[in-house]
Amino acid sequence: MPVREEILRRLKSAVKIANIDRPAKPTLSEMTMNREQMIQRFQIELAAQTGVLYQVGNKEDARRILTDIIKAENLKSFIASADHIHGIHITSLCSENGIPVTFPGDFKERDTLREAAFNADAGITSADFGVAETGTIGIIFNPKHPRLISIAPPVHIAVMSVKDLYPVYENVMEKFFLNEKNIPSQFSFITGPSATADIQGIAFKGMHGPKKIFVIMMMDDS
Amino acid sequence: MVDVEGGSNDMNVSLFIPCTVDVMMPEIGVATHGLLTNLGVQTIYHKEQTCCGQPLFNAGYRDQARKAAKHFIDVFGEDEWIVSPSGSCVCMVKYHYPELLEDEPLWHNRAQDLAGRIYELSQFVVDILKVSDVGAKYAGKVAYHESCHILRGLNISDQPKKLIAGVEGTQLVDFNNSAACCGFGGEFSIHYPEISEAMVKDKVTNFITSGADILLLCEPGCLLNISGYLHRNHPGRKAQHLACFLVENIKKV
Amino acid sequence: MRADVGKFMETARQELKNQQSQMFLMMVSLGAPLLRQIGMSSFPDPVAAESYVRAIRAEVIARMPELLEEFERSATARGAKVLWARDAAQANNMILDIARQRNVSYVMKGKSMITEEIGLNEYLISNGIEALETDLGEVITQNLSLPPFHLVGPAINVPPAKISKAFLKKGIIEKETIDPVELGGGARKYLREKFRHLQMGIVGINMAVAQTGTIINVENEGNIRLIKSSPKTLVAIMSLEKVIPTMEDAVYMTRILARNCTGQKLTTYVSMDTGPKKHDELDGPEELFIIILDNGRSAIYENHHTREILKCIRCGACLNTCPVYTKIGGYPYGSTYCGPIGQVLTPMLSGMEKTTDLYRACTLCGMCKKICPAGIDHPSLLLSYRAREIDGNKKKGKKLENAMASLVSMGMSHRWLWNLGVNMTRPLLNRFAHDGAINNIPVGVQGWFRCRDLQAMPAKTFHETWDDLQSDSVPSEKTKHMEDS
User: Fold this and answer.
1) Helices (DSSP H) in B8-166: which residue ranges?
2) Cβ within 8 Å, pair A191-C269
3) Rounded distance, CA C362 to CA C30, Å?
4) Of B36, B186, C456, C480, which is most buried by a Cβ count within 10 Å?
5) How high is the pLDDT of residue C471?
6) Which positions ≥6 away from C186 have C-beta within 8 Å?
7) The domain containing residue C355 runs over which residues?
């Protein structure tokens, strides 16, 4: 008998006990947060992970902040998930700052993409949603948005719209993943930079993933 | 005699005297009896009782434990109130007797019925007799060790503390890791002596740093363990069963 | 150091004397439960949150075969290749075949206890394929050949100087250092070079969602995201019980898992993969193999009592509150799983005979049962193993101990025999008493006397004292009857 059948047969033949009735799903206090509260909570949670939130009114302000970050972090090269991220034109931003940038469209296959992601000082990406509950951002990976950009470089800059900020994870599940025909090959929750405390319980950031994360939150509703 | 709200002078309480008390620390049994009679309760002692069988059960000798369980059920079977100065023994009867006898419906039913009529001493005094002040007085500091079966097995914690609070002049001090296991565990203390030692050492260190004069507890097994360690390593430091502490300090009228 | 449960007490004694270990165990026992409590208190109703998760895990157990079939259907529909493996040998072979067929010379792995359980690394290495751990704690244990000290932080006790030596030897760092940040940085750089050319990655699975066929990994470091992003081939391996009904359940579970594990509200990364990469994606695996492994779980499932072991979510909370674990650390348990979960699981995986200490070295204090978010009753399982051992001994003809126990139970059933036993023992025992206490005896329960005295046996049992107390109480009818007969 094939192994699969053998295992399933053993499991099925074990006398069944009655299925447990679930108690009601406990509510979370975050569920009733308004926008102000969500933003505040998001900022606090992100800061606790050493992440930094910038709320920007428009794309010009965004460019200014990004330029500041480039200078402060001494970033010399970028890899970006797209040329236009929430209205910010990445090519011109980078050329203004005199640094090279690559985009997914520049690569035909994974090895060269990998090389570029591994060599870039920073990855700049859109974020598809944010969750106030834990200062989490989320990315839905797809052909236009490869996975490595947000995990390989030592700095990750994520740009999101305040409209995509939700109180709790369940809102995200409802909004993005209910359509079973359209589940992405990967989506990730990202809460702060990469971290570890495996040596003597001493915590530090940037083990394999980014050491720093910046979240640019576009506040304009347009 | 203390006026008792919950009980009545007609109440007959059947004493369940753990084997450790019967053989090693009869004074705990005497104190239990004294405490209850002082509260106006009549006590019964079935002379045929011996041991609930827990040591056999814990070691894995279920057939033999079953024998002891059946004897216990025969001895105590009809009593309305069964009270014991021990938490682990009460747990054994309440939770493990029905399990041990699940293949014998008549015995199983008797065991389940019995489970509803058995109490740990402080639980009985506070919850059933509704007494917290037994008329005792002791000027000093005490600490209370929360034994595993009493706290986590029976959810008893407030009751002993209420009884302590009811003692005039006594201050219950905070006690680091008061709910940590003392390292007795029955055969564990004999077969895993180094680990047991490390655990009882911690317990005693925390007791000493609490500044309390006496470490009080409601579990005879823990008491044997802790006072044995104290006797060897910190002679002069005292651990005592709550029943003995209360009775010893009852104000003379 | 090879983990060997046969040397439980020998290893425990060493650990009790090891200052480093004791320091970390104290840190773990004080810090971890506190962090967990703070994490759980962020729920409006922590008790309700726990009940909900216990209900989820109970449902998983009740519906396990149908959930596994649903998961397989969903995952396969999305392009994953689902394989079933009966045991360690089969799973290891499968993975080796996949690696060989793709001419892979090395693989990189996320932290996965199931792969440790089956000895995957050793198997691949002995077959000429390098298996590199990437989670920092695992990198350390791999390079120092150490067993895990803790479920979650396997190398948390290891002194930086020791790590430095091993890393230097391996070329992971270029000069000695005791700075954890530098050691981590060295590992990052070293492994990044290996990631650069990685063709095949291996990860475990925290949750396999039946509804969508999604595999979920939680981590803080980012190594798993790298492994799930860059190589062409990804192998994800899970034991049967990792399945969970819906995405909604999974997301709720991650809240509880993180809080019970480290006190975090959420791990840094939660990556959820459904099938291999889509056709025109640049990265992500082209092939996703999901191996569903039994390795003893179906046997555990068949027994109604032991099946609750499968509820475990590997959070490690039971370790942090166990008074035995927090004195001896992970090494004595001799396997992938330490602490109370190790004590209930390993005897089922490795056999009762070799693992006696695992189910007897426990005071039944109940802390594990109390804190377990999945609702496992460890003490009741350990008691059942002890009973099984005794039954087994009887069948093997080990008559003496059983006869002794029968004698004791006869004493417990007949007061006259009990009295006789007490009266015989008293003088024998009290021979060794000085000033009312005994500090050692030549034979028998000597373990007691290692650090404790025992008061001398009183001259009278309570039973004998009772007659003196008679005047205060009413003799029972039963007593009367027995006295008269």
Assistant:
1) 19-23, 26-38, 54-59, 62-76, 87-91, 97-100, 105-115, 121-123, 148, 158-165
2) yes
3) 20
4) B36
5) 58
6) C167, C172, C173, C174, C177
7) 309-396
Identify the segments of chain A with pLDDT beneath 50: none
End-to-end CA distance of chain C: 66
Q: How far is A199 from chain C (nearest CA, A)?
A: 5
DSSP state of A2: -
CA pair distance C351, C360, nearest whole angstrom:
14
pLDDT of residue C484: 39
Provide the chain C residues 258-277 that lie in CB contact (below 8 A) with chain A: 265-277
The tokens describing C274, both together, are 């459904």
Statement to judge: residues C382 and C292 lie in one domain: no
How close, in Å, is residue B113 to chain C by CA atoms? 20
Task: Evaluate whether residue C406 is within a structural domain.
Answer: no
Q: Which chains have 3+ CB pairs within 8 A of B?
A: C
Quickly count: other Cβ atoms within 10 Å of residue C479's Cβ: 17
C407 within domain boundaries: no
Report if residue A1 sits inside a domain. no
Average of per-residue pLDDT across B150-178: 97
Amino acid at C469: L
pLDDT in tens, C8-21: 999 999 999 999 99
| Token pair in block for residue C248 | 């909604």
Domain membership of residue C170 (yes or no) is yes
Pairing of strands A165-166, A129-131: parallel
pLDDT at C485: 36
> Could you tell me where the beta strands, DSSP code E, fall in B74-208?
81-84, 118-120, 137-144, 168-172
Residue A133 amino acid letter? E
Task: Give the closest-approach CA distance of A32 to chain C in angstroms.
Answer: 13
pTM of the model: 0.95
